[in-house]
Amino acid sequence: MDTQALAAFLAVVDEGSFSAAADAMNLTQPAISKRLASLEQSLQVPVIDRSQRKLALTDAGTRLLPHARRILDELHNARLALSADNAEVGGHLSLIASHHIGLHHLPAWLRRLNRDYPEIHLGLQFMDSESAFDRMRKRRAELAFVTLNDAMDRSFEVHARWDDPMDFVAGNSHPLTRIETPELADLADYSALLPDPGTATYRAISRLFLEADLTLTPEMPTNYLETIKMMTSVGLGWSVLPRSMVDESLCVLPVDRTVTRVLGAVGLRGRLLSRPARSLLSIVDELR
């Protein structure tokens, strides 16, 4: 079975169209179509349903999908296993980082990586953690630095993790700052500035209010914590932010609840890490 044809098949599935797959693989659309035709000819069964207006897999294509990913992962692993361990650490390293980790953790790691391993060339993408998991499933990066959560499926392997304690905060002029020991019921009277409901942070806060039989009133959700910090500091609502972000523009609210999220580095289970990736993880472990 032609691995290039399998790669084209996966690109079509992941990108959602032949044209997008061609762009992703730096090929022409006819070249993608030719590889898919070759794959279907070798299997003697269609894998893409071309009768639908929207691209869809046939039953055979659905069954082929996990095998195709495993075959290409094993080819990736074989290449790494055959590479010389005594060679200079270099080459391409594709990373994804959440915006918070990219701003507050990644710079020190990459500064050290660039100093110690100047032959490593980075491909870096920034996005929210939920989008990062989707990109990793499509093999668009080798490592992702994200917020870990209990909904993360078993296809991911955690290579590093650390706690990120968070505080309830409000702007210095917010009415909540005048309450000596505010409770969740006090916070429920005001707007909350929180990330999108699909995030682990939002789910943790929402769970606290649900258990206390209180209504959470979120306003203007955004996954950019720096934006949430700014809106909180000018008095638009209260929030829960990483302790490392709290400064004189914010007042910590001594709410009797503990909120801690877990940050970490994830790769795909069963897919070996390259030497550049392992070198970065060693730096993360040392500097963290």
* Relative helix content: 40-55%
CA radius of gyration is 23 Å
Q: Roughly what is the average pLDDT, rounded to an integer?
A: 92
Order of SSEs, N→C? HHHEEHEHHEHEEHHHEEEH
Low-confidence stretches: none
The total of helices stands at 11
Shape: globular
Walk me through the structure:
It contains eleven helices and nine strands. It has 288 residues and is α+β, with helices and mostly antiparallel strands. Strands 3, 4, 5, 6, 7, 8 and 9 form a seven-stranded mixed sheet that branches. A two-stranded antiparallel ribbon has the order 1-2. A hairpin with a 6-residue loop joins strand 1 (48-49) and strand 2. Helix 1 crosses helix 4 (59-82). The mean pLDDT is 92.
Supply database-style keywords:
11 helices, 288 residues, alpha+beta
Summed up, what is this model?
Helix content is 43%, strand content 20%. By secondary structure, the protein is α+β, with helices and mostly antiparallel strands.
Layout of secondary structure:
Elements lengths: L2 H13 L2 H8 L3 H15 L4 E2 L6 E2 L1 H24 L8 E7 L1 H6 L1 H11 L3 E7 L2 H9 L5 E6 L7 E16 L12 H4 L12 H12 L13 H9 L5 E4 L7 E3 L6 E10 L6 H13 L1
Parallel strand pairs: 3-4, 3-5
Antiparallel strand pairs: 1-2, 5-9, 6-7, 6-8, 6-9
Helix pairs in contact: 1-2, 1-3, 1-4, 2-3, 6-11
